[in-house]
Amino acid sequence: MMDSFEFNKIAGAVLGALLFLMGLSIFSSSIFHPQKPKTAGYDLPSAEVASAAAPAAASAVPVAELLAKADPAKGAATAKAACGACHNFEQGAAAKQGPTLYDVVNRPIASAAGFSYSSSLQEKSKSDKQWAFETLNSFITNPKGYASNTKMAYAGEKNDGRRGDILAYLRSLSASPAPIPAK
Ligand code: HEC
User: Fold this and answer.
1) Average pLDDT over residues 149-175
2) pLDDT tens digits, residue range 3-61?
3) Ligand 1 pocket test target in 154, 158, 171, 172 with most atoms within 8 Å of CB
4) What average pLDDT does range 130-154 have in this prediction?
5) CATH number for domain 55-172, candidates 1.10.510.10, 1.10.760.10, 2.40.70.10, 3.30.70.1250
6) How far, in Å, CA of 159 to CA of 142, rounded?
7) What is the pLDDT of residue 42?
8) C-alpha distance across the termini of the chain, in Å
9) Kindly report the CA angle at 160 between 155 and 165, in degrees rounded to 5?
10) What is the mean pLDDT of residues 67-76?
11) Residue 42 contacts by C-beta under 8 Å, 6 or more apart in sequence?
12) Selection from 143, 168, 162 nearest residue 154 by Cα
């Protein structure tokens, strides 16, 4: 059996240890001031800044910038692979599943003779009139986003570099290529 003296010694030791820990904790928090962040989580760069400066087009990068960096020769190869199954590119060539794309830049929307366009694209021809670079850019980025019921069963080219190359190639398909927009 433990006598009461022994018990007091142990209790005293435990109490002493607790007091020491308490003192240590008060002391250390007086040295280290943990700074709470003003907002919880990580402070990621805000996407709003970029989109606020961009035009209303589907793509964030202005078409002038895409074209400045584009390579029409690369675009020819990309377009043959991505669009060639449904489109011809030569002057006077017949429509495939889609109309011929020769001279499509600044051509009135849905205007290839004899081609039966979706009502969606015909509707767009009333508001947007012609395939200006920005208009083409948003259609090729996301066809359904531009004309919700388009017959063009193509998911879109989201990569800015590849899309810029395609646009530069389409521009080259003309006797007098359209001027590259300044901005
Ligand atoms: C699966 C077939 C298919 C593929 C792939 C495809 N298109 Fe089309 N495209 C069509 C069809 C069909 C239409 C007509 C759309 C409508 O009437 O809504 C069209 C219409 C267009 C038009 C409008 C032409 C006009 O006369 O108004 C452009 C521009 C165009 N496509 C560009 C492209 C480009 C560039 C690519 C490749 C990056 C591409 N398309 C890939 C089938 C396709």
Assistant:
1) 97
2) 788 888 888 888 888 888 888 777 776 666 656 656 666 666 555 444 444 444 445 79
3) 154
4) 97
5) 1.10.760.10
6) 11
7) 66
8) 94
9) 95
10) 97
11) none
12) 143
Q: How far is the CA of 150 from the centre of ligand 1 (A)?
A: 9
DSSP label of 175? S
Q: In the chain, where are the structural domains located?
A: 1-31, 55-172
Residues contacting ligand 1 via CB (< 6 Å): 79, 82-83, 85-87, 97-99, 101, 104, 109-112, 117-118, 120-121, 131, 136, 140, 147, 150-154, 157, 166
Which among 86, 120, 87, 119 is positioned nearest to 104, based on CA atoms?
87
pLDDT digits (tens, 9 = 90+) for 122-141: 999 999 999 999 999 999 99
- The DSSP H or E segment spanning 137 is helix 133-141
Nearest residue to 152 via CA among 114, 106, 115: 115
